[in-house]
Amino acid sequence: MNDTIAVIGATRGTGLAAMRQLIDAGRPATAVVRSVEKARGLFGDKATLVYGDVTRPETLAQAIDPDWAGIVFTVDITGGIAGRGMFASREKIRAVMYGGLVNTVEACKQRGFKGRLVLLSTIGLSIPSTGMKILNWVKPGLRDHSIDKAEYLKKSGLDWTVVRAGILNDKPGGAHALTITGEDRPLEMRYQIARADLARVMLACVTDPAISKREFSVFWGEAGHDSDAELAAKLAALAG
Ligand SMILES: NC(=O)c1ccc[n+]([C@@H]2O[C@H](COP(=O)([O-])OP(=O)(O)OC[C@H]3O[C@@H](n4cnc5c(N)ncnc54)[C@H](OP(=O)(O)O)[C@@H]3O)[C@@H](O)[C@H]2O)c1
Questions:
Q1: In the predicted model, is pLDDT for residue 240 greater than 90?
Q2: Domains plus CATH for the chain?
């Protein structure tokens, strides 16, 4: 296994933040993208760029390197209203959110990938809330697709981590200590997190031994900042 971390979903949001953190730290990074041109505009020659569309399994079989240390998977449907796939059909959303993860898992198995797949999921899937009701209405079936993708990964035989994030924002990271808990929380504004902070946690999950086959929730706590050691201790606490 080498030190490379691959990001699928690298050209926007949390995946883009993860790529930027890897590049800033001088760590080997690969972006698996459906537009290499767009990725080149974002990362230049500072990362390896590989074509891969999660709705096209044959492209993933070509893209995945079995020697990567891990894959950070942050794919979500894009386009449509607000660029976030709102009011797309249930089938289209499922093809990306659930089908994309299934195709990635199967390609990993086919290629003999031995690293860890770190999957972005959401809090509030097991607790009824108005927030989840609204989200499930604007993105039909989101709750089912999110539950199903995590279950598929957990049963895959691969090494995995499922990170259930609070409501995402694009504020700068590093201004809050993080709450990390094995418990679920309702999808409410008081449980928020910046994509930059979430990206940092997801990257830490690739190599942290405590996080193998764990699912947890993460959202902002008090103002402050977790050092790398403090973050590692919070992740280690999940292992009991
Ligand atoms: N929004 C929230 O408050 C919230 C809360 C908790 C969890 N989540 C979860 O967070 C995830 C989304 O994170 P985000 O908002 O940071 O991401 P995002 O900005 O929506 O980015 C999605 C990424 O997926 C890529 N993508 C889309 N279709 C693809 C395909 N067919 N093949 C390969 N890549 C594809 C996009 O690439 P292009 O640039 O090519 O479009 C983009 O890089 C979802 O799983 C969501 O359930 C969201």
A1: no
A2: 5-238 (3.40.50.720)
Q: How far apart are alpha carbons 101 and 151 in whole angstroms?
A: 11
Mutate to test the pocket of ligand 1, among 16, 50, 74, 149 (most ligand atoms within 8 A of CB): 74
Residue 139 is which amino acid?
Answer: K
Do residues 222 and 178 make contact, with C-beta atoms less than 8 angstroms apart? no
Report the residue count for the chain: 240
Residue 87 has pLDDT above 80, yes or no: no
| Confidence at residue 85, expressed as pLDDT on a 0 to 100 scale | 67
CB of residue 40 inside a 6 A radius of ligand 1: no
Distance 13 CA to ligand 1 centre (A): 7
Among residues 151, 156, 74, 147, the alpha carbon closest in space to that of 115 is found at: 156
Phi, psi of 41 (to 5 degrees): -65, -30
Which atom of ligand 1 is nearest to 167's Cα? Answer: 3
d(CA 222, CA 239): 23
- Give the distance (Å) from ligand 1 centre to CA of residue 176: 23
Higher pLDDT, 55 or 209: 55
- Measured between alpha carbons, how far is 116 from 161 in angstroms, rounded to an integer? 7
**Does the C-beta of 226 come closer than 6 Å to ligand 1?**
no
